[in-house]
Design goal:
It is found in: Cell membrane. GO terms for molecular function: transmembrane transporter activity. Keywords: Cell membrane, Membrane, Transmembrane, Transmembrane helix. Its main location: membrane. The protein is an all-alpha fold and 406 residues long. It has a single domain, classed as Up-down Bundle (Growth Hormone, Chain: A), CATH 1.20.1250. The chain contains 16 helices and two strands. It has a two-stranded antiparallel sheet with strand order 1-2. A hairpin with a 5-residue loop joins strand 1 and strand 2. Helix 1 runs parallel beside helix 6. The chain starts with a helix and ends in a 9-residue tail after the last strand.
Length: 406
């Protein structure tokens, strides 16, 4: 395995920690700022929307920089945002810090996915992408629970200061280990935008929004749900996050393993299973053991969709993958924002802390429907050599370059 993949995983670990640790600390942050839990949930929504905006914006603005340099700049922005969150004197500044950190998220994973895929042979691309995302899933086993424990014991500001330090470590790792990989000569904004004319790219992104929205409908309000409904203590939230992270880790590995072999069948299985588990979670949430098992399954099924969805976008946007890859990372977080907002609505409406699970089940079911539609369209489309648009705008035959190795 190229060492560069480990450097990308370190950066992903820092990003994953800051993205998910907020959910375990919502009660503490809400209490310190004197806001309600649904209002504190805006820290999840704001972060997710920042990813949606930052993914295409920073990818386009950095279009002339090498991919390595862009990854380093993005980690610097991530560090700045987390430092701002750590010292924020009021909720508005805290939200601003979250948004600043989130702007780097989409481009980092989007560009990182392209770099990871370019480091290995064509039949190992999904596995390489999954290796990078392993940093994010390990963050949920180690970084998020530890950050939650520190936040509850010492103060949540300390957690965000530590996350900023993780960002510095990621930046140094990228500088040392990731090879210089300039953008291909034919890669121009016109060609990158041309990828969005492919309906399969748009369908894959819509699947991403709805499928991952299903996951976040369940976990955004995990702390109050597990304490108020399942009956766990506040201190147990740390270990519940470990379980969720373990599910994510296993799901990501399985997704990376099988996406190169049977991508669409994998999506049918994971999205259908996710919908079923979320629906059952409305019942199992009232039993401690069953609630914990459901949480693991949500993490596993949800993150098993990440490598195949990201690979499908890269495959369908062949020849101009960078912007499409980054936008798809934004799509994951658009799903996060949608789910956090809808979950807050049903809780504020008095429907209880299990009501977001029904929202998640509906979102996952809709994603499954899009997957079936996408496959049906693909079967009806005549098989032709794939083409891509270069700087001149002229379609050229698919000539996949040899993968770069570190």
């Amino acid at each position: 395995m190229p060492l560069a993949l480990l450097a990308l995983a370190v950066g992903a670990f820092g990003i994953g920690t800051t993205e998910f640790v907020i959910m375990g600390l919502l009660p503490e942050i809400a209490g310190d700022y004197g806001v309600s839990i649904p209002t504190a949930g805006l820290l999840v929504t704001g972060y997710a929307l920042g990813v949606v905006v930052g993914a295409p914006l920073l990818t386009v603005l950095g279009g002339k920089a090498s991919r390595k340099r862009m990854l380093m700049l993005l980690m610097g922005l991530f560090v700045a945002g987390n430092l701002l969150s750590a010292v924020a004197p009021n909720f508005g500044i805290m939200l601003t810090g979250r948004v600043v950190a989130s702007l780097a998220h989409g481009s980092f994973f989007g560009i990182g996915s392209v770099v990871a895929a370019g480091l290995v042979a064509p039949d190992k691309k999904a596995g390489a992408i999954a290796t990078m995302f392993t940093g994010l899933t390990v963050a949920n086993i180690v970084g998020v629970p530890l950050g939650t424990y520190i936040g509850q014991a010492v103060g949540w500001r300390t957690t965000f200061a530590i996350v900023a330090a993780l960002g510095v470590a990621g930046l140094l790792g990228i500088a040392k280990l990731v090879p210089a990989m300039p953008r291909p000569e034919g890669a121009r904004l016109r060609g990158e935008l041309g990828a969005f004319r492919n309906p399969q790219v748009l369908l894959a992104m819509a699947m991403t929004v709805l499928g991952f929205g299903g996951v976040f409908a369940a976990v955004t309000y995990i702390a109050p749900m597990m304490t108020e409904v399942a009956g766990y203590s506040a201190g147990a939230v740390t270990w519940l996050l470990v379980l969720f992270g373990a599910g994510m880790f296993l799901g990501n590995l399985l997704g990376g393993r099988y996406a190169d072999r049977a991508l669409m069948p994998l999506l049918y299985t994971t999205l259908g299973g996710l919908s079923l588990v979320l629906a059952l979670f409305t019942v199992t949430a009232h039993h401690k053991v069953l609630a914990a098992i459901s949480l693991v399954l949500v993490g596993a099924l949800g993150f098993a969709t990440v490598p195949p969805l990201q690979k499908r976008v890269l495959d369908q946007a062949h020849g101009a993958p960078t912007l499409a890859s980054a936008v798809n990372i934004g799509a994951f977080n658009l799903g996060n924002a949608l789910a956090a907002w809808l979950g807050g609505l049903v809780i504020a409406a008095g429907l209880g802390y299990t009501a977001p699970h029904w929202v998640g089940a509906l979102l996952a079911t809709a994603a499954l429907g899009l997957a079936l539609w996408s496959a049906a369209l693909e079967r009806r489309t005549p098989t032709t050599p794939r083409t891509h648009i270069v700087a001149t705008g002229t379609p050229t035959a698919d000539e996949t370059p040899a993968p770069a190795h570190s």
